[in-house]
Amino acid sequence: MNQIRTDIEPSLDLFLKETPMMDVRAPAEFEKGSLPSAQNHPLLDNDQRHQIGLCYKRKGPEKAVALGYELATPEVRKQRINRWLDFTKLHSEGYIFCSRGGQRSHITQEWLAQAGCHYPLIKGGYKAIRQFLLEQMDTAIRDSQVIIVSGRTGSGKTQLLLKLDNAIDLEGLAYHRGSSFGRHIYPQPTQTRFENNLAIALLRNHHYFPDKPLLLEDESRLIGRNCLPPALRDKMKSAPLILLEEPMEHRLNIGIQEYVVDNLNENIAVLGEQKGFDYFCTSLYESLERIKKRLGGKRHKVLHDLMDNAIDLHRSHNDLTGYRPLIDNLLTWYYDPMYDYQLSKKTGKLLFRGTQEEILQHYPNIMIQHQRN
After folding, report:
1. Which residues cross the membrane (predicted)?
2. Is the whole model's pTM more than 0.85, yes or no?
3. Sequence-ordered strand ranges (E) for 42-145
4. d(CA 278, CA 272)
5. Per-residue pLDDT at 370 exceeds 90
6. Domain boundaries, the chain
7. Cα angle vertex 313, ends 311, 319, to 5°?
8. Cα separation of 161 and 217, whole Å?
9. Of 1, 117, 189, 195, which is least surrounded by CB within 10 A?
10. In Å, what is the CA distance from 37 to each residue of 44, 136, 200?
């Protein structure tokens, strides 16, 4: 006979094991912020939650609870229970949570128990989970040594980080490439969701690699619209550096792969071939427009003409060569001067500079050198 599991407080173990969780809050609450291992199976939909909220304000808690049970018709109740049972069968090790560990979690538990399934909840709900994560994130930032991987746009910093176990891909968490042309077709996570994902990545790294420095890509305060925690940003400003340097040809190849091939494929996968291509082209022009002021009118016109030519060649002959002069000039006129200025402001010690191959080859010695200092 299976042992009945008990309700728990938020814990490190939940996130180290990527424990499945059933978020029974309304979809609007889930969209605002939840957890990467959580699935939304709400007790109340957005409209029902709104109705009950108004009733609570106007008539008090007893009337609001009564309205909740009134809205839970036999058909609605059956649908909810069946969905929850499906989740519990797939995830026998999971947990329930609502906003504060109150009525919604307990009603979900009660209905499941009546259907023969005893399933535990997380005490304090999402509010307690988020507080736990923020505290863990503060601790991990405070206790971690940080090394910054820096390098010009297109040098392959993210690819390098993905080959190292003690690294966190901040751009991946923010779903943004960290540049004016770095947007994806899907929106970025909300700030709350980004913070939750970052906190989990930090606490996992801190747990599994306690004696290794944390490697991060050189980022500004904002990655798209997602903001880094001030404590982490402050630590990054003075952290020692590994400088990734690659020749222009290599950087052009990465630029075409990421900003043309990958972006276009992503758009086509979502919108279909024609609409995907049109959206891709529109995004390029919008990105160029965002940096017009910094470029100046003359250079902006040159780049706009190059973009026209590149897109025409791409559309008519499926030829990507027109993007090379466009990306070359973007790097030379916009990205490289901005990077060189930012690098001149760095105060951290330079540990090593070289290509990705050289960095990977010398990486063990770089870590030894860092630990000695």
Report:
1. none
2. yes
3. 95-97
4. 10
5. no
6. 12-131, 146-373
7. 110
8. 8
9. 1
10. 21, 17, 11
Say how far apart CA 146 and CA 240 lie, in whole Å: 7
- By the 10 Å C-beta count (0-12 exposed, 13-18 middle, 19+ buried), 321 is classed as exposed
User: Taking a C-beta distance cutoff of 8 angstroms, is the pair 218, 149 a contact?
Assistant: yes
What's the rounded Cα separation, in Å, for the pair 111 and 114?
Answer: 5
Residue 335 pLDDT exceeds 90: yes
Q: How far apart are CA 213 and CA 37, in angstroms?
A: 26
* Tally of residues, the chain: 373
The class that CATH gives domain 12-131 is alpha beta
347, exposed or middle or buried, with CB in 10 Å at 0-12, 13-18, 19+?
A: exposed
pLDDT in tens, 29-75: 999 999 999 999 999 889 888 888 888 888 888 888 888 878 878 88
Tokens 């699935």 found at: 39
Q: Are 159 and 149 in contact (CB under 8 A)?
A: no
Residues designated as active site = 98
Tokens of 307: 């973009």
- Strand partners for 292: none
110, burial (CB in 10 Å: exposed 0-12, middle 13-18, buried 19+): exposed
128 exposure class (CB count in 10 Å sphere: 0-12, 13-18, 19+): middle
- In angstroms, the Cα distances linking 23 to 14, 35, 62, 95, 99 are 14, 9, 24, 9, 9
Q: At 171, is the pLDDT very low, low, confident or very high (cuts 50, 70, 90)?
A: very high
Question: Angle of helix 230-237 relative to helix 125-143, nearest 10 degrees?
Answer: 10
Alpha-carbon distance of 86 to 80, in angstroms, equals 10
The predicted pLDDT at position 236 comes to: 94
Copy the structure tokens of residue 350. Answer: 């330079």
Token readout for 222 is: 């904002």
Q: Measured between alpha carbons, how far is 215 from 145 in angstroms, rounded to an integer?
A: 9
Rounded to an integer, the average pLDDT of 108-124 is 96
